[in-house]
């Protein structure tokens, strides 16, 4: 707990070079050079720029922005370590001007400790509020009414079902209940096919586990569970038992506890597995030959569930544009940047070229990404459960990944699963 308090205090104060040098060396520490840039150069820190979905569209948009405005933009790129790299640069007061990252783990505290600024006033002053979906504004607004960032990417998180593989195994319809899912898994295994592939050793498994546990929870109950780590209530315990029943019946791919999101995507896209719980960016990567015989729907529910339909996750907090204290010193350039990326033509290109779901209003359709478009159309056929990311305390986020791997290990009892999930919250 002392280290967390120290980190929050340092971020709030801006820190020092000495404090920054005490942190581990990181691959993206070029971010520390941000404050030394020409004052006319806008420095943006993003996960887009390499292989992340939407990167080519983003880089092309940056080029158009430079051409239209004459402004210089430096794009710093990091992957999963972006939040840590940004905090390192913030401690040295050399942070980038704009940060593009999701609302999760470390970033939950940024606005509260002054590592980034409340952008609500800018959103209104720049006339951009009407561009944002109301549900996205709600998701990005904290308990004190501050808007943490300008919402941008959203995502749907349905289940993809390979109809061809289901047909080959003699499964005549997409499973809609737990019993149907168990029956389909047995038939698929009889044909040497994996049923549900999942990255049980990373965030994909964590999200699916959370989704299954919510089978017997209302959204308010789920919010309490993932905020407090109290998995002892009747609904949470029933959800854990349901997960264990599915796991030990062979629903998930073999050795799921050691797999990652890349493993999951590869298994589904090469037709080694018949089903996957996949967010929009993964659906956009499904090859055309597989997408042609793939349906999207919800996760099957059990009798007595709190939901009367299969469930999906839908969230609007995937990527937002955060403004740093340094960014306020270049606010005119930041305004031009945000207005450009909020323009309908820019938003439409992310939808059409990259298959991205957006937190902004748009009439564009992902015609080149049929599974993404199909997920967008899911309405009354599914029920929504919470994405726990914005409720899980930052200190519990990574321990929950470890708990997820244990949970996907065959033979682990429901009591043990509950124990490791609750243990992730110790010291929070």
TrEMBL record:
Cross-referenced SUPFAM superfamilies: Periplasmic binding protein-like II (SSF53850)
| Keyword terms, alphabetized | Signal
- Asked if the keyword Metal-binding belongs to this entry, the reply reads no
Q: Which Pfam families match?
A: SBP_bac_1
Query: Which segment of the chain is annotated as a signal peptide?
Result: 1-33
Q: Tell me which PROSITE patterns the record gives.
A: PROKAR_LIPOPROTEIN, TAT
Stored PANTHER family: ABC TRANSPORTER SUBSTRATE-BINDING PROTEIN (PTHR43649:SF30), ARABINOSE-BINDING PROTEIN-RELATED (PTHR43649)
**Could you identify this protein by its name?**
ABC transporter substrate-binding protein
Q: Which organism is it from?
A: Streptomyces tabacisoli
Source organism phylogeny: Bacteria, Bacillati, Actinomycetota, Actinomycetes, Kitasatosporales
